[in-house]
Specification:
about 80% helix, 5 helices, about 0% strand
Length: about 140
């Protein structure tokens, strides 16, 4: 019985992370889409939300290396997960700040936010996939 409850709790936690990632993707998509006319589409928003949901679902809470292996080598999955989460979160934070404060930063900053978001969720997806393959 405890095993089922524990698995259910873990699944609920991961679904919550996926929803947070989708929300972050929505903010990034809204900011970038409003600044770059060719990206002002519903498809772009959906893509940003899907990338965020998959990235946060897979890339946060990755299985760690066994204790005996953790001292022998660097855990690339854990490093990628951390760096990806930071990049994606900073991109989402900047997007929300720009939207709420009604700023109009230079287009270079918009492209940097988009690249930071894509790089961040890509690192999370790779980290989550790598960590689950080694099990």
């Amino acid at each position: 019985m405890r095993y089922g409850v524990r698995k259910s709790a873990h699944l609920l936690e991961r679904c919550g992370l996926a929803l947070a990632g989708a929300a972050c993707g929505l903010f990034v998509g809204a900011y970038v889409g409003s600044a770059i006319p060719m990206l002002t589409t519903q498809g772009f928003l959906v893509l940003m939300m899907l990338l965020g949901a998959v990235g946060f679902y897979l890339g946060i809470d990755t299985p760690q290396l066994p204790f005996d292996q953790a001292h022998e080598q660097i855990d690339a999955a854990e490093f990628l997960s951390s760096a990806g989460t930071l990049c994606a979160s900073v991109a989402a934070f900047v997007s929300v700040a720009v939207i709420v404060l009604r700023e109009e930063p230079n287009i270079v900053w918009t492209w940097l936010v988009l690249l930071g978001w894509i790089a961040g969720v890509a690192m999370q997806i790779v980290a989550g996939t790598k960590a689950r393959w080694r099990k």
